[in-house]
Amino acid sequence: MHHSDLIAAVRRAAAPIALTLALASATASAEPSSDASTPAPADPSTPTSDPPDAPQLDALEHRIDALEKELAALRSAATRTPGPQPEPTPKRTPEPTPEPAKVGAPKPLPGKPTVTGAAAGDSLENRTPDYADGFHFGSYGRVVAGGDHRGRAARDADIVARGSRLDESNYAELELRREDYWKETGAYTRIVATMAFGSPIFHYNGQFAAKLGLRNLYIEESGLGLRNLKVWAGSRMYRGDDIYLLDFWPLDNLNTVGGGLTYEFIPNLVLRLHSGINQPDNAFFVQDVSRPRPLGQIGAATVRVTDRQKSISSAKLSHIFKVGASGGIKPSLYGEFHYVPSAQRERETSQYENLPDDVGFTVGTQLGMFTGKRSSHLNLVFRYSGGLAAYGEFNAPTRLSPQRDSKGARELLFAASGNYEVGPFGVLLGAYLRSFRNASAGLDVDDLDEGIVVARPTVWFGKIAGLSLEGSYQAQRRGVLIPQSNGGLKPQFGQVGRLGLVPFLTPAGRGNYARPHLRLLYVLTMRDAGAQRLYTSDDVFAIRKVDHFIGLGAEWWFGSTSYFRD
Amino acid sequence: MTHVITAPRKRTVLSTALWLATGAAMAGCMDFGDIEQPLQLETHVDDWRNEIIYQVLVDRFSNGDPSNDHGVRFDDLARYQGGDWRGLRDRLDYLDQLGVTTLWISPVVRNVETDANVDGYHGYWAQDLRDTNPHFGTISELRELVDDAHSRGMKIVVDIVTNHVGQAFYYDLNLNGVPDINIQGSGTPESPTLHYTEYDPDFDPRGVQAFTSLGEAGPAPAVFQYDPATGHLPPSPDPLGDPAAYNRKGRTFNFDDPDQLVHGDFPGGLKDLDTSRCDVKQMMVDVFVEWVEQTDIDGFRIDTVKHVEYEFWRFFTQQVRARLAERGKNNFLMFGEVFDGRDALLGAYTRHDIYGPADLAGFLGQPAAADPSDEEQLAAESACVQGGEALRGDQLDSLFYFSQHFAAIREVYQQGQSTDRIEQLWANRAVNWGDTPNQDGVGVAPRDLPINFIDNHDVPRFLYELRKRPASESQALLHNAILFTFAAQGVPCLYYGTEQGLAGGNDPANRERLWDGGYDVTHPTFGWIQRLARIRGEYASLRRGAVNVVWSSDHVGDEPDAGIFAFERIGGDAGGSYAVVVINSHQTHDSTTRTPDRAMEVSAPAGTEMIDVLSRGDLRVIVGDDGTLDVTVEPMQGVLLVPAAEYNDGI
Predict the structure, then answer these.
(1) Is there a cis peptide before residue B437, judged by omega within 30 degrees of 0?
(2) Domains, chain B, with CATH or none
(3) CA distance B157 to chain A (A)
(4) Least CB-packed of A205, A492, A502, B537 within 10 Å?
């Protein structure tokens, strides 16, 4: 059996339970993850039929495991002869379920007669098996209609950088993608363009305007020259596993214009290298001044005095160790290097000062553990950043050192996420502890320690509905002192406790990573005086100790590269 | 290749994860030092006469933290320049090396950010008396500065303002609800031109009056501005957000009118507080005691003293001393600024007499009705005291010696006028200034503790007026003036940048960025101050001795003693230490302490060998059998004579 046929057989067998048996997880967030240990969502387009009982599910799951092992063996035999037979791969993130059958191959482009699309039965060794060529569409989105108990607009009530996502605002990504196989070279091409829309949206304010960002615009080539090599270039959000509950990528999350490569030395041992640039719109990077126009012309022209870009390079090495029949452990090592060249800026008219070059680095590691069943997993992340990197890849450093660079800034992060599902029950977990110090010597309001722990247990009612309860505790300490009544001083320390209740409909069936969801939202937020102090006077959050958020919303994801892992 | 992990490796992974988590938690601790706890106040000063004060305009001294350089404009000295407490802390070595022992820093409270294209960098435009000025740092950074200074034996005095706040409100003169700066009228006799500003209208003893086309319309509403971006917000804390807490009489233009002086807004729209109100008095005590409790600072320099009622100073100083004494803080210095050349006016703020409005009018040469009796006055004032002792006559510990600045520094050491005015000035001080130490105060009578200065942020620098003179002459004159302030009775006080020869003119030109000069410790004036500081530290007579003028002259021409001013530092609390200071302010010829009809009599026994410290012993003179001492001094120079028995040739 050709393995594409094998896959088709698997899919047919699994179709009735495709959603609830999502083989691995995927994150469901603003831009879900693409790495192995976080499961990807099932394709909601797959129809479902009568629900199987538990023994049926187990039997089907075992069957899928066995078929995937067979698939891996066949794939290996086809692509690695002669050579050692790889062991069966651990259950990886599921490939997207088949798109509707393609109709014919793409037409060759004018002037490029050798280019043709892959027809059914073409070799698919270096790509997601069974993935159709041609144009594709994928999306992540969330929309919420809601507000507080007095009718004010919905608003994020977290005090930490990454908090509960139950009250996040509207956001959507629309991904257009082109997939091609080139017979002449045996390479595969993927062109990705992802548009992202932020809140507000038209039906909220009636404005024909959009907060629009192009989150992806790149080409990736697979198997061009080297079978296990992928190269890409363009503009890309480049990231690993997330903590779904916090909408947070704790280890790696880069947004640059650049390129990179992925090489799989042996099965499941993957090296990813990337380098790119960006230039945040900030005086640290750019300064425009006005000058008279040349050659006797009237008027002023803008001259860019400071014009420097941040270059970021990253490397990630991951390996999956199989544990048992379907589980595994995936350790990852990660590093970043950031660099900004020296420059000048104008202090006063025609008086300049030098800005030194600046560097930063990140080292990190992740330990992922997964059972391979029902998206159960646990990820532990440690990350340390210094200098420029402590501020994040897309931020300009603030509160600089006396030398006007970011030397001395640091960020320390420990994060954990997990999921466990059994029967009609499941629980998602997320937590992190973060310490940030900017480059200025003393403590100030931007220096902080913060952390959050959040858990979302869920019970499903049959296959179409469920109820989630989310509880979280978050606290943050800032580098400023608050006078006390006894004449002493105490660090600013705020705490927030949140409790959410989310009944939902889930046409995709059970599973914490099954989407779409139609849901009702209620979130109780309690903040102490320290948390209230973080807000400006007359802000309702500065006035209220308790808030109630009530909403109706939807969330979905399907078919975009954010869920792919190849 | 796929590996199956074994149990022992699982344990290793788990332990590594726990180790990393623990490390992360520990590394994340914020180090506030010991300042999170209520501070144990301590007395860091034995005798303020041992100190040498250095006035720091924080925004201009050193920029140690560019992260707080909000809105810095390097091309305009009227705007923020970036100096901060971190920078000052980083430069304590420089100040230590200079020899100063007490730092008087500009106000620390949050100010109106900017007004009429001038920033509140100086600190005298308070907006929130309980918050730090974010341009200078956080409360923890201020604490770190104080702690670092104390660890070196240095003290910190903070500048405070109780008379006024910043440009907080406008007077809605035309009742149109917006602030106006208007020119009205066509300039004809029937329609005279009227130019007025609702931010800073002229003083009106009735209170600023509104008007309509029909004429006056009663008191003009005081409307607080609300512009967070520029810091124009109702001042804080209560009752500063209440218009009733202000006198609302408009801008002072006649400083000899006691009503205007005390109740008028300070020019520039700085709104004058009604400091006779009990709630205002108590709030001032509370907030400024809190600053001490939170930072352990050692004293206050108090701004615009003469613009505030005597009764306020009695309440404020006595309540502050009592509150700090309860917390273990004694010897807390409170010296004030009375920007005036009339010594009696200055001294009145240090005396225990129960002065009132009529006394102030008298000092200003104005008629006034008699004040109530002292008993009635104190009883009325004591009604503001919450459960404490009845008020007494105690006021400030000392004053910025402005009368000396005019009479001695400017007229004698800068302009070369006769030195007898200094003798007269000092004699007046003995009469005008308080002769009794304040209860719980610094233990020294105010008249023995004047704060001697050459220049400051409100007057042109000493060298500015000499800018057309050769550098060697202007420097010699400056060094002579510094010698005078270091040798005179009291506490010398240097304005930052004097040691670098800064020569800026009037505000803001006299508020230069010190870092532009690179903190040159080889500058001749730096070396001169450094040496004088050592000398002052070595000889107790120069610090704590009483003063006895032994020579002054009304001569300014070719006379042999023209320019000579000589005084002994003797007795007092100096033990047996003794010194004779002879300074020649004449700018062209040598002068001497002997004339055909007069010789300089000194207290040292006949036959005492006196050695000049400044020339390192090159000049040695013997007290004559008649108790006189003959000294000749080159123009613009001085000698500092101590008995041979006291002489230390190592300085």
Answers:
(1) no
(2) 55-166+275-534 (3.20.20.80), 169-224+240-263 (no CATH), 543-643 (2.60.40.1180)
(3) 19
(4) A205
